[in-house]
Each structure stands twice: as C-alpha cells, then as structure tokens.
Write a structure and sequence with these properties.
There is one protein chain. By secondary structure, the chain is an alpha/beta fold. The chain has a domain at about 10-235 and about 320-330: TIM Barrel (Alpha-Beta Barrel). The protein contains twelve helices and 15 strands. A hairpin with a 2-residue loop joins strand 12 (about 270) and strand 13 (about 275-280). Helix 2 (about 45-50) packs parallel to helix 3 (about 75-85) and helix 7 runs parallel beside helix 9 (about 205-220). The radius of gyration is 19 Å and the shape is globular. The model is unreliable at about 330-335 (pLDDT under 50). The structure holds iron/sulfur cluster (2 copies). One iron/sulfur cluster binds near residues 26 and 29.
Length: about 325
C-alpha cells in the first residue's frame, strides 16, 4: 500500500552534522564549506548541543551526519550519549567506510539504524558519482553491519545520471539484509548547484519510475520512502518550516529548519552558548509563510526548471515541501516521518 506521510506534530528530527570533512568527493555532495565551515565538534560540544534539545528528546530522532560521521573518532561516545539522554531513535548516515572501527565499538543496542548511501546498482555508475572504490566499500560495510546485527537502511539519490539503474536496485536491495530503503531527490545545492553537471529527473520520470521500483522493493517486506515532489492542484500544500520540527545543525553553529536554505546564511537559529537561539529577521522563517501558487517558496527561488506553466501563466503543478514523503510498504504500520 502507498501512503503520503505528512509531518508529524509529535516527531522531532535532528539532523546533526558533527563535522563536514569527508573522505569522498561525491559529485552531488550538498556540503558547502563556505557556509558550513570545516570544523569538527568536540564530544563535549556534541553532548551540550544534544542536551539543548532536552525538552524534545523523548520524541526526537537524531541522525548523525557529516561529511562522513564515522571520521569522527568519538562517534560511538556521541551515539551512546544520545541514547543515555533518552532520544527516541538514533541513526548514523554513512558512505560505508565505517572508519575508526565504529561498528565494533558500537552495539546494535546503541543505534537504531545505520544508513548507507549508494547511488548506483553497478560499480560503474555509483563510482562515477561517488568515487572509485566506494561501491565495493559500501556493500562490504552493509554486509559487516548486518553480520554484527545492526538494523541497516540505504539511501539512493536519484539524478539524470543514475535513474536508469534504479530498477536494478529492486534486484540488489533484497539481497543485502537491509530493513528500509530511501529514494532521495537530487538537491540543487552544494556541488550540484555549483557544477550544474547533474540534473533532477523530469516529472514524468519521477512519477513513473520511482513508484514502480519502490513497489518492487516493498514487495520483499522492505518499506520504501521517497519525496512526493509534485502536487496535483487539489492536494494540500504545507511547509515543514511552519508545521514540523526539523533541525539541520552544522558544526559552525548554524541551525536550519529547511534544507533548501543551506547554501545561504538564511538559518533561522544558531547555537549560542550551547543553546538553540532564534536569529533576527531576515531569515528562512520569514519565507515559510509566503503563499505562492507554485507551492514551495525555496523551490521557486532555487530551481524553477521543475515548474511548468499553462498558457494563462498558472503553474500546472505545485512543488511539495521536500520533507513530505510517500511511503510504500507491504503491510500497514503506523505512519512515520
Ligand atoms: S559521502 Fe556524503 S558528505 Fe561525503 S562527499 Fe559524498 S555526499 Fe558529501
Ligand atoms: S522545502 Fe519549501 S516547503 Fe519545505 S520547509 Fe523548505 S521552504 Fe518550506
């Protein structure tokens, strides 16, 4: 069955970039050192910033990110600190290199999911996008994590360069032992915005190819989540910036509620004296309440190419908030973000 997962008023998602450094140089990397810095947070600061969300943590999911978060030598200690503080769920997003022996310094009880990024069903396409050797290393990392008893998931970021291999993932994914599969739309930020080498797929491709592959993977009992992207005229629009609690935290202290704003100094919050502190206008918060016929304001500002207009100049479709997801699963369970 397919359902649209709206923002949950009860869920808080903390996307915690504990460093920006990475061993890879993916062609679509969204990290922008000019905006996000090159720093690595100390364990003391990670713990202090996790504590800053103390009131929310029983409903908060924390996702440790980088850069490559396993390059942080204290990642296991940071994960266990989040567990001790009572965070609802803990995920590590990794490129699969699993530095510092992290899966042997953590136990499956410490972390809810280790999520691996793979962007091609073949070595050729994945390594074209993510770098030589990354395909074999990622799959070896998945295998090692599954063998250690960790729950694992996988993220596939779709662009015009790898969309043709997405159907092959329906054959590969069920062999890996992973529990969830996420399909992500290419974000026009970071390297993608600067190089303009990679492009999002068309509406027709997105609405046909992505659900087809998702259905095939879900048939194996693996839930699949992917962004909605295009809204028909009668579907409701909502901006996560106004109705959901998502925080994208960077090591230079910037905190965004909208990932599309991350290439700009538009962050609505910052960490000051280890506290989440609202910033004065003008920032992303001032954009969230603007109502436009195209839907997402940031999409209209950053990537107008995905909006078609009729002869009267009206948008044929609207662009959904990038944080609204479709979820396809074999059996009905509770909706989640
Ligand atoms: S693995 Fe992630 S952080 Fe590293 S270069 Fe690739 S997209 Fe960027
Ligand atoms: S992606 Fe668009 S709709 Fe979603 S939070 Fe950002 S501005 Fe709002």
């Amino acid at each position: 069955m397919r359902e649209t997962v709206l923002f949950s008023e009860d869920a808080v998602n903390i996307f915690f970039h504990i460093l920006t450094r990475c061993n890879l140089s993916c062609r679509h990397c969204y990290i922008n050192p000019a905006q996000h810095g090159r720093g690595m947070l100390s364990l003391d600061t990670i713990e202090a910033w996790l504590s800053a969300f103390a009131d929310l943590r029983s409903t908060a999911n924390v996702i440790f990110l980088g850069g490559e978060p396993t390059l942080h030598p204290k990642l296991p200690e940071a994960v266990r600190a989040a567990r001790r503080m009572g965070y609802h769920s803990i995920t590590i997003d990794t490129n699969g290199y699993l530095f510092h022996d992290c899966i042997h310094r953590l136990s499956p009880a410490d972390v809810d999911f280790i999520s691996f990024s793979l962007d091609g069903a073949t070595q050729e396409i994945n390594d074209t996008l993510r770098g030589k050797g990354s395909y074999d290393t990622c799959l070896a990392g998945v295998k090692a994590a599954v063998a250690r008893g960790f729950h694992t998931s996988m993220i596939y970021t779709v662009s015009d360069t790898n969309v043709h291999e997405l159907p092959l993932m329906a054959d590969l994914v069920p062999t890996l032992g992973i529990k969830r599969f996420f399909i992500q739309v290419l974000g026009i930020r970071g390297n993608t915005a600067q190089s303009k080498e990679l492009h999002q797929v068309t509406k027709e491709t997105w609405e046909k190819d992505i659900p087809e592959t998702a259905e095939r993977i879900a048939a194996h009992g693996i839930p699949v989540t992917f962004p909605k992207v295009f809204l028909s005229p009668d579907e409701p629009f909502a901006c996560a910036g106004t109705v959901a609690d998502n925080y994208f935290i960077f090591p230079n202290g910037r905190v965004y509620k909208c990932p599309l704003c991350e290439d700009y100094p538009l962050h609505g919050y910052e960490m000051c004296d280890n506290q989440l502190t609202p910033r004065p206008p003008v920032n992303e918060t001032d954009l969230f309440n603007l109502t436009i016929p195209e839907g997402c304001v940031m999409n209209k500002l950053l990537q107008q190419d995905n909006i078609d207009y009729d002869e009267a100049g009206k948008p044929v479709n609207r662009i959904s908030c990038c944080l609204i997801k479709n979820e396809i699963k074999a059996q009905e369970t509770e909706p989640r973000l």
